[in-house]
Design goal:
The protein is α+β, with helices and mostly antiparallel strands. It has 1 helix and 13 strands. It has one helix spanning about 1-35, and strands at about 40-50, 60-70, 75, 80-85, 90-95, 95-100, 110-115, 120-125, 130-135, 140-150, 155-165, 165-170, 175-180. Strands 4, 6, 7, 8, 11, 12 and 13 form a 7-stranded mixed sheet that branches. It has a 4-stranded antiparallel sheet with strand order 1-2-10-5, with no helix packed on it. A two-stranded antiparallel sheet has the order 3-9. Strand 7 and strand 8 (about 120-125) form a beta hairpin. The longest helix is centred in the first third of the chain and has 36 residues, at about 1-35. It is elongated.
Length: about 190
């Protein structure tokens, strides 16, 4: 009789161990599923500079802002914020339209500025005709320009943040554009 009871206890232990093993495997698979369902995006700038050493000439940064969806789900309602430093000599321009522009001026691959055009520091831009970025897709806000004169010293970082329905707090670019230099002309010294 004791051997039957011992055999049942051994079997119960084996089943408990098997259940724990199944639960552990189940947890691993759920975690892997959660990882594959998370939002993974890389945002970055590409840029080139034309620096003038003549204080009478402007310097120029030509750039593009790229959003690369490296996740497994689409990014819904994407938009970007390109931000210039406050009180800097930098001015921003790019190919974008405003909501009130005629439809024929809004190209399918264009971008729309969605914040107040009087704001010269932050530029909120959304792609026109594109409400999602699919997995492994890259979209770009291309060929923006940042200009500045450097009759005085300057320094600042151009930053960017990508937003979408899943990233309400945003995801910063991995490489802000850092611009700094100094003027050879001292204040009060003019030709």
């Amino acid at each position: 009789m004791r051997t039957d009871q011992d055999a049942v206890e051994v079997k119960i232990k084996e089943l408990k161990h098997q259940t724990q093993s199944y639960l552990s495997e189940f947890r691993k698979r759920v975690e892997a599923l959660n990882i594959s369902q998370s939002v993974n995006v890389i945002s970055y700038f590409t840029s080139s500079l034309i620096i003038s050493h003549d204080p009478q000439q402007e310097s120029l940064c030509m750039g593009s802002y790229h959003i690369y969806n490296i996740g497994y789900q689409p990014l819904i309602n994407p938009y970007v914020c390109i931000k210039l430093p406050e009180d800097s000599p930098f001015s921003f321009s790019g190919q974008y339209v405003y909501e009130h522009f005629k439809q024929n001026l809004k190209g399918a691959a264009g971008w729309e500025r969605i914040n107040d055009k009087a704001n010269k520091v932050e530029f909120l831009l959304k792609p026109l005709g594109k409400t999602s970025i699919e997995p492994n897709e890259i979209i770009s806000f291309s060929n923006f320009q940042i200009k500045w004169a450097h009759s005085t010293s300057y320094a600042g970082s151009i930053t960017g943040v990508t937003y979408c329905d899943q990233l309400q707090d945003g995801m910063a670019v991995i490489n802000p554009i850092n611009l700094n230099g100094f003027s050879l002309i001292q204040e009060g010294e003019h030709e």
